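Kindly go through the following sequence and its backbone structure tokens. Advise at your convenience whether the structure tokens fit the sequence:

___
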Amino acid sequence: MSAIKEAFQKAKADGNGLLIGYITAGDPTPEQTPKIADALIRGGVDILELGLPFSDPIADGPTIQAASIRALAAGTTPTKVLEIAKQIKQQHDVPVVVMTYYNPVFRSGLDKFLGSAKEHGVDGFIVPDLPVEEADDYKKTAVVHGLDTIFLAAPSTSNERLNEIVNASSGFLYLVSHFGVTGTRTTVEESTVQLIRRVKPFTAGKIALAVGFGISKPEHVKTVIGAGADAAIVGSAFINIIQKNSKTMLEELEAAAHALKAATKKL
């Protein structure tokens, strides 16, 4: 059983949802990322998602785009991201997922990059610009190296294609909560609640359902978990704290994670 699946099963047995925390690796520097991860995990993050900084992050809003620019300017490379993952896994028994666009993987060589990722403790990958219809080689190689393949579904995904995505996914299904890009929002729209309820029958008994994009407050987490999601994915809210890079950044991150984690507990 993969570490990601085990984390979901444990939470389900406890009657709780999971908190998945996203940060851009190397923001503000590669040396600080493991410390940021420590703070988030102390605060209660169950799965850590490390974004591999990319020059053209099409699925990301201004907050994460700016984080990628800072990370690249600090000299962050795909190899350094894997080294950061290894440092984190040496300190914490928490699943680590890498979110990357396909170009860095393709340029490095599929087998070489995924094999190295496994050796560095990575548990799974999210590749938002790789459609499931073109992912056969990627999925086969990931299976060989024992990595989970986490695909995304959107509000516009048809029921037929949703079945294909669920069947191709392992670890969890990443449900994009709304049209557009990542970023904080003030509320969770009713359409997101209805979307979760539409998708849940497709994932029930097959794979965990995690919801991201625009989830930034404890009440957002409570809403999506209450609607049937198994996990909430939070990114921009953490990156907004990192961007300020204040002396109390680590304490603020831990406190934010603690409040968001508390909201995953089911009544």
Residues 23 and 239 are 6 Å apart (CA to CA). DSSP finds twelve helices and nine strands in the chain.
